[in-house]
Amino acid sequence: MMGTGKTTVGRALATKLGYRFVDTDEIITQVTQQSISEVFATSGEAAFRQIETQVLAKVCAYTHLAIATGGGVVLQRENWSYLHHGLIVWLDAPTELLSTRLSADDTRPLLQTGDLRSQLETILQQRQPLYSQADLRVVVTSEETPEQLATRILQEIPQVLKQPSTLPQS
Ligand SMILES: Nc1ncnc2c1ncn2[C@@H]1O[C@H](COP(=O)(O)OP(=O)(O)OP(=O)(O)O)[C@@H](O)[C@H]1O
Ligand SMILES: O=C(O)C1=C[C@@H](O)[C@@H](O)[C@H](O)C1
Ligand SMILES: [Mg+2]
């Protein structure tokens, strides 16, 4: 979800892993030469989603790469086949924390109309069933730094990887 820290924590995670890092929103701004808000304003959300899928399709093929996506990547069914090239981490943060973080931020076009808190609640409610399809859910609180969260993600990843004993015998 927007503001949970995908970009910030994803970058810290990549550093700890010795992986490269990309952010699909950053790639979109590079290829379109527009900010995310400008893409939404000039081409619309549907066009943005198409570009996002094209970018995801390219980057998901790489190994040793941590990818931060946009929060709406879960909305397109075909994106899931790309996401499943890797291990999908859901940063789950309460709307109260998100609204504190994003109240002074005007870079997210879907949050520019109406009351921020209720917009976040509405979007989160719609997407919760999709986010919950991730491989690993990490609950975000205001207490942990991005580096601490990245460490916790690394600690929790082995628990969602299949143990050799649970794999079918060949
Ligand atoms: N663990 C954290 N502690 C404190 N601030 C944080 C933490 N994680 C992220 N932030 C801050 O919250 C804001 C949103 O973070 P970020 O841009 O990484 O979110 P995002 O999930 O990538 O959002 P989007 O989906 O819109 O790209 C930023 O100002 C970032 O510095
Ligand atoms: O959650 C979303 O739908 C979005 C999240 C951002 O990362 C951007 O991809 C854009 O603002 C849309
Ligand atoms: Mg981001």
UniProtKB/TrEMBL annotation:
Keywords: Amino-acid biosynthesis, Aromatic amino acid biosynthesis, ATP-binding, Cytoplasm, Kinase, Magnesium, Metal-binding, Nucleotide-binding, Transferase. ATP binds at residues 3-8, 108. Binds 1 Mg(2+) ion per subunit. It is found in: Cytoplasm. CDD domains: SK. Its main location: cytoplasm. This is Shikimate kinase. The lineage of its organism: Bacteria, Bacillati, Cyanobacteriota, Cyanophyceae, Oscillatoriophycideae.
